[in-house]
Structure formats: structure tokens, C-alpha cells
Design goal:
This protein is an alpha/beta fold. About 40% of the residues lie in helices and about 15% in strands. It starts with a strand and ends with a helix.
């Protein structure tokens, strides 16, 4: 099979490209920078925010896996809209015109809006997204429904939760850095669904090679949920440290999250929600469709995550 992967040099893209090639697939890898995916996999430079790929690159492609996007909370609304939404629809239309058999889009659970409580959410349990990232992903999903409504192409939308693994950046890297600097043990409360990188890559690979026809939307999450305190404890253990002391009172944590929001120019409550609110999901639809079972846990990978960050 022939695959085209966008965002090929990102955290998820590198792992997926390596897996597709290892399984014998033919690959065209696209990235904004055009740097190597690995020592034996090159990528072509295409800035999807401003241009579409040359039509020739789609010749003979069976499946497009569209990973490229911006997730930075500090990115402006225009950037989210241009790359996450508009670029996705342009690529989808090009794929439809060029006869690509399947289009897989990496969306996010943020497209489902914020949860109302701590119960597990399935694909239909949505609220209107309000922040730029989630809204741009939701608009892209809606656009894909319109583009492929009568095209006869297989469309699979994957909504991953927080992805972790060696080399992870973002919030988990920031938490690890804070632990190294002596961050006190966070208060209990809040559980969050997460997914290991290898489990997500396996799901994407199965969707790309054995995905059903029609249009499908699946949540990608692991089997276990973790609070910020759980992740903190597991990271300290992986670092060879004793259990941290929770000497900072709860009101001080709340005040600290407000200060962080102010300095980052985010809506007040954003950091508190990330650290202490529950956001739980179910992966039943993906499991049933592809006979996929996530097999990794944060406990298993914490030591590798710590070692990778340290190096």
C-alpha cells in the first residue's frame, strides 16, 4: 500500500512513518521543515498553512494520514483556523479529486468541547468547543463530513486524548521539569484519560491498512485514567526519588493556576482544569471496529519518559 503522511516529523508522525515502512508500506512523508524523519526516511518540505501538496505526490496513494496541525495554546486563533481547519479541508478536496481511497484525520478530544462531569464520554457526548484549538478541530471534522458526503471515500477521524511516551513535549515535559526543581506533591482530584504513543500509532496503522468504508469517528485513549498526582508520583518514582510531600495548601495551588493563566494570557481557569479537573473517555468504538486493544500504561513507560527527557 502507498501512504502519504503529513506532519511526518512530529512526535506522532515519526513513530507512525517508521511503523508503516517497517510493515512494508510505500511512504511519502511531508513536513513543514523537510528534515529527515529518520536516518532512512526523508520528508518533503510543504507548509500546508499556505500551500497544498503538488498533485503529483498523490498519484497512486491509497491512504492519506493527516497529522499536521498546531496544538500550541499560545498560537493565535488565525493560526489554528488556517492550519487545523482550512488546510485540512484543502487537502481533503485534493485527495477526493485525485482518487485517494482513504483519508485519516488526527483530530482531538478537544473537538468535543469541555466535559460536564467526570463520567466517561463516548463519541457523541459533545458540547460546543470554545477555545481556538478545539474549535478549529471541530470545524475540520464538520468540513470533512461535507467534502466526503457523497464521494465514496473511507474517512476515519481519530480523536486522541493526551499522548505520552519517550520524547513527549508540552504539559508532561513541563511537569517533569517542575518535579526536578522540587515541585511539591499536588492535591488529589481529577482523573484524565491518556494514551501511549505506541498504542495510538498501532490504531492509526490498523485504520490505514484495515479501516472500514464509510465515515467513522473514534476516540483513542488507554485503559487507565490518571490524576496529576498519579503522574507526579510515577515520575518521581522513575527518577529514583522518594514520594513528594504535599506541603503546599490547596488554596495556594488554586492561586498559582490563576497566576499562570494571567502570565500566559489564557482564560482564568484553564490551568486549573488541566491539572485538577476530570476528563475521561471510552475507546469502545475503536476497539470494536479494528480489534484494537491498547496495551501500554504510564507505569510501564515512566522510566523511559524520564530517561529520554534527561538526555
Amino acid at each position: 500500500m502507498k501512504f502519504l503522511v503529513t506532519g511526518a516529523t512530529g512526535f506522532i508522525g515519526r513513530a507512525l512513518c517508521r511503523r508503516l515502512v517497517a510493515e512494508g508500506g510505500s511512504l511519502t512523508a511531508l513536513s513543514r521543515s523537510g528534515v529527515q524523519v529518520s536516518s532512512d526516511i526523508a520528508s518533503l518540505p510543504v507548509d500546508l498553512q499556505t500551500v497544498s501538496p503538488d498533485r503529483k505526490l498523490l498519484g497512486g496513494v491509497d491512504t492519506i494520514v493527516h497529522l499536521a496541525g498546531v496544538a500550541h495554546r499560545n498560537a493565535d486563533t488565525g493560526t489554528h483556523e488556517a492550519l487545523n481547519h482550512q488546510a485540512t479541508i484543502r487537502l481533503a478536496r485534493l485527495a477526493a479529486d485525485e482518487g485517494v481511497r482513504q483519508f485519516i484525520y488526527l483530530s482531538s478530544v478537544k473537538a468535543m468541547g469541555e466535559p460536564n462531569d467526570d463520567t466517561r464520554r463516548s463519541e457523541g457526548d459533545c458540547t460546543p468547543p470554545t477555545e481556538p484549538y478545539g474549535l478549529s478541530k471541530w470545524r475540520a471534522e464538520r468540513g470533512l463530513h461535507k467534502v466526503f458526503a457523497d464521494r465514496g471515500i473511507s474517512v476515519i477521524i481519530i480523536r486522541p486524548t493526551l499522548v505520552y511516551g519517550p520524547g513527549v513535549k508540552g504539559n508532561l515535559q513541563a511537569l517533569l521539569g517542575s518535579i526536578r526543581k522540587g515541585l511539591p506533591r499536588p492535591p488529589a482530584g481529577g482523573k484524565r484519560s491518556m494514551i501511549a504513543l505506541d498504542d495510538l500509532v498501532e490504531l492509526l496503522q490498523r485504520a490505514a491498512t484495515h479501516g472500514p468504508g464509510g465515515l467513522h469517528t473514534w476516540i483513542a485513549c488507554g485503559e487507565q485514567d490518571y490524576s496529576t498526582r498519579d503522574v507526579y508520583d510515577l515520575m518521581r518514582e522513575a527518577l529514583g526519588l522518594e514520594r513528594g510531600r504535599g506541603w503546599l495548601p490547596h488554596w495556594a495551588w488554586q492561586l498559582g493556576t490563576v497566576v499562570m493563566d494571567v502570565f500566559a494570557r489564557r482564560p482564568i481557569g484553564t490551568t486549573r482544569a488541566q491539572l485538577f479537573c476530570s476528563e475521561r473517555y471510552t475507546n469502545g468504538a475503536a476497539r470494536a471496529a479494528l480489534d484494537w486493544v491498547p496495551s501500554h500504561s504510564f507505569e510501564q513507560l515512566a522510566r523511559h519518559i524520564v530517561s529520554e527527557e534527561h538526555t
